Amino acid sequence: MLASLLAAIAIPAFANPYDDGMKRVRLLSNSPDVRLLPFGKSGAGRPIPAYVVSDFSVDPANKARVLVIAGQHGDEYNPVKSILTLSRQLAAGYRDDLIRRCAIIVVPMANPDGIAVRSRFNADGTDINRDWLDRHTCEARFVHSIIKAWRPQAIIDLHEWTGPSRVPANGVELPQCNRSAQSRAMASLSGRISRATGLAVAREVGGNTSLLHRRYSQMGYASYLIETARGEDYAVKSHAYMRAVEQVAESLAADTRLRSALSPSSAAFSLAGVISYLEPVAIGPLADPESSAVAMLAMAVAAYCLMMWVLKPLAVKGEPTWSHRFRKCSIDWDIDLHPFLKKHTLEPLTSRSWMHRRLRVRYAAPRPAKPAPMSL
Asked: Are residues 219 and 352 in the same domain?
């Protein structure tokens, strides 16, 4: 009995990591610097969250666009926690200079069904990170819709090794691409990521082209795979993920020419397609939540007064009723006038309230005398 009680106490509040992640996303949505995008749907029907972190008071026309994806493999939860932590820090003012110049689009849990049960695969038993050629899974199709709408100038895919690796375990993979200018720009940025994070640069030499970062690099996007070693401390992993995202965003924000060189396909971006998620915040007295609340309260009071002015004279009363405000003074309104124009007049109390029985006895009108008996 005692052992089972101790085990129950040891269970965390969110034994399901997906539920923990969704709670963090809900908390993020309260920030003025975070806006939720339409969620996707996993194979088992779980929502796939997505959101944008940016300073929405700044004109979005010239902002850099960085897409961060985590949680393709449900048994790799450290990248998910790290990007949610970085999002919270950015929303709290950690790097105001960065979010003023960048729109950071985040899909923190690309595989909700796998994360919920700590599985590498989705509910259909598919490894999502092997499905980017044909996109049979609904998870891959949702992420592709995000890429198609936002046309990011850089894509960062966060992973961690859960077994032995054939390449440097703490590394950033530089995939092959079809354009020499793009290849040089991507190599330059991967060097900056390496210096900022301590991750080794690993160049792709052949291999499976159905992985997300390899597939989209061939499609004209600068796409990087960030991986950390098995058994590495979470603080080390988190630092690597977060600094990689910051470094990419800093580089794109500072150099507008680098953006097109990195991702030629990003030139097809249409601001009109996503402007509803990036519109600047209105500036004025109503932008202040306290001012807005006061204005709404004043409007509600005015509407109530107008309604009472119109409706109260129309009320049908079976018998004269006493004002709640002046009941103890035995004062009521003149029935012939409008409530706002009536004068107070003294009248005898006729209330049937039990609480005013003493007043009724005190001020009750004298009873009429009984007639004298008639003599025969």
From this structure: no
